[in-house]
């Protein structure tokens, strides 16, 4: 029973804190009314030992005597004319006052009847500024959860209804993230391996290089940001491993062996995946892509600024190769009908060329009538995505290069609106 | 006069005892909200506002004419019998007649759309004028209907509150100047009032208690709870102004029943519902906005010493989420023990025009768990435990028909008249049968096409208006025995007062909190 005395002594006398009854009730898991009594008893006993050791505030509830207006400087009556008051009915008014103990006597004289009084808080100093108390009181709210309020609050409501859907949804989401993070490490190293494998076999373009080194570079920041959430953990794990694999791959070793080594390591706790290593290739490439996609989604969410930088590089590269565009006669409403394409250049995944379109043209004939005719014409185009046949062009290099392209294309299309306004 | 000695031995000023403290069960709230002011999801703003006036006139005119006929039928003045004229345009000079129509007030300080157009102002700023009424006069009162408009003059007009949009009938003659000299004036008066419990049924526990009281249990009669409904407005949770933070805390503890002693707690347990009537979030102060701009400036200069770039569109950094967080905490702490009806107000995150639509529960990440399930297969007919509703709002609480607003309708009316008698204006609104007469003239409103929801079809038993400068209450009575309890709910931030209504007698009491 005396734990409260120790608690109060520690908090009030040693740590100079203001303790309200609600805080005490939450801290010791006692009913609020008991907490009020504890505060009173502690205040009494301490001041009996040494007067002025602790100072209390009281909460007084009752009806004030008629005619006593609140004396603490509430002068906001100017807006209402006195005769207006007479139009409203007089209604019983109860007043709830928070009073420092020094003013308790004085305030009590204003009351005609006090229905309830108790100690609200005790602190080591006289409570001058109620705002400090407000902080203490607000602190309690941050502690509150529904669970630990049971039995502490005097009023319960048996009819309370909560929305259940909410909780279920959260649980499901948590479960999926767990699954993800579990499956993540299995795929990530394997995919990294494939990437490294393909690297030496390939006359590496600048963009591809960027693309392949991109993930390792970019995957690092999430690690720094703190792996608090499930999905972040997944990425940080995945990110730390490819870096290691890369080092191994740089040593002139058979790629397969290095892959084996690196996959063995993280999967040692996950037995079955190790044995199926020969099958790992098709699966891993898909894993690679999905990881890319997820990474990209994450990046889109978080590093919008990175996107801007990324976007600008390919554009710069492209500009010198740009075709001298043929100026079409300005015709209203170009309507694409059938596409007969002539690709004049295909660089870095960007196709440029012309295609045949049908245009609507309005001319005025000799009688002064407007006539709309359809005319075949050429329209120059420049596209991001490689057409399907381009994929077969370079089999082994396709995966990383295309992934890089895909990523860029995606980032470009979905970049934030701010990228439009900045810097150009 | 209470002295320390008298209260010295109350139960809480004692040593802690080991008795298991009592738990009180909060009274059940009997509640059925109506969706009279809910707007369709696909809102169109292409329509003209004239339809609102037309619909209002069409709905209220028959009632006004009925009143006028009983009052003026066969009235003979100066050897002439008053005749009814159907349209304003049909009033003939020198003929004693009576006609019904919509009042239009032309006032020098009133914002005018024609003026905006003529001065090429196309973006309407929120109305800032404190008053449309000018001491120097210059206002004119017109009566109009779909045919035309006539200017009203006469001493009798000064005896009534008149604002744009209310429907009245006037008797008199048109003088040589083409003005209508008003001899007498009538309005529709209170609409028919539904019986108590016309939409909902008394809760089963309530009826069993009553029957038991009849049977044998005398004890039950004593402990028959006198329920209360708490109404508060203008909580104004603020990110910067903490001058009333302690009062808000005490309010929370008071409503939770954590504060006070057993006797008071058992009383507080009978507060069955809390209605928050607008302005739960404080108006963003000028100070706040300048503060944020200065901070952004300094950080920008510190960071890269170039001019603070003006971002296009919404600048998220100037948003202070604290007020809505505080409100969310307040609501989510209260909700486990008390159901809450939340009306939006002028400052709240809802649409600005009347009728304001409910504050979206997404504003309250914690309290949202108590909000109604959004429409869908899982949606139930039951109102939410936290019920964000429209402003104005109509519903049935403990069987009584309740009409409540966040206060904009009354505030706007007050700008028309040289009076602070807000209860009188509330009464006038009821008697005009229109809860927002100044919409759409000076009170922004949705351009209704098919329905004019501000017309009171049924007379409420309780009509409260939130966010008012002072508390006031009054009971008014209608010709058919209707009685309406009017309450002007003061803003909590300014007055620290809440209103408790006894749902058995509709008696009102108030609680003042001072810290």
Automatic annotation (TrEMBL), chain A:
InterPro entries for this protein: POLD3 (IPR019038), POLD3_sf (IPR041913)
Location of region: Disordered: 70-89, 174-362, 374-424
Molecular function per GO: DNA-directed DNA polymerase activity
Residue stretches of biased makeup (Acidic residues): 303-341
Gene3D superfamilies given in the database record: DNA polymerase delta, p66 (Cdc27) subunit, wHTH domain
Gene Ontology CC terms, in alphabetical order: delta DNA polymerase complex
Cell compartment(s), UniProt: Nucleus
GO biological process per UniProt: DNA strand elongation involved in DNA replication; DNA synthesis involved in UV-damage excision repair; nucleotide-excision repair, DNA gap filling
Pfam families, A to Z: CDC27
Keywords annotated in UniProt: DNA replication, Nucleus
Low complexity bias spans: 179-192, 233-242, 391-404
Protein name: DNA polymerase delta subunit 3
Organism this protein belongs to: Parathielavia hyrcaniae
Lineage: Eukaryota, Fungi, Dikarya, Ascomycota, Pezizomycotina
UniProtKB/TrEMBL annotation, chain B:
InterPro entries reported in the protein's UniProt record: DNA_pol_a/d/e_bsu, DNA_pol_D_N, DNA_pol_delta/II_ssu
Gene Ontology terms: biological process: DNA repair; lagging strand elongation
Pfam families attached to this UniProt entry: DNA_pol_D_N, DNA_pol_E_B
GO cellular component labels: delta DNA polymerase complex
Known EC number: 2.7.7.7
Catalytic activity as recorded in UniProt: DNA(n) + a 2'-deoxyribonucleoside 5'-triphosphate = DNA(n+1) + diphosphate
Domain called DNA polymerase delta subunit OB-fold: residue spans: 48-184
Lineage: Eukaryota, Fungi, Dikarya, Ascomycota, Pezizomycotina
Protein family per UniProt: Belongs to the DNA polymerase delta/II small subunit family.
Low complexity compositional bias, start-end: 199-208, 290-303
Cellular location(s): Nucleus
Region (Disordered): 194-221, 285-311
Protein name, as recorded: DNA-directed DNA polymerase
Enzyme class, spelled out: transferase
Keywords per UniProt: DNA replication, DNA-directed DNA polymerase, Nucleotidyltransferase, Nucleus, Transferase
Nucleotidyltransferase among keywords: yes
Native organism: Parathielavia hyrcaniae
Gene Ontology molecular function terms on file: DNA binding; DNA-directed DNA polymerase activity
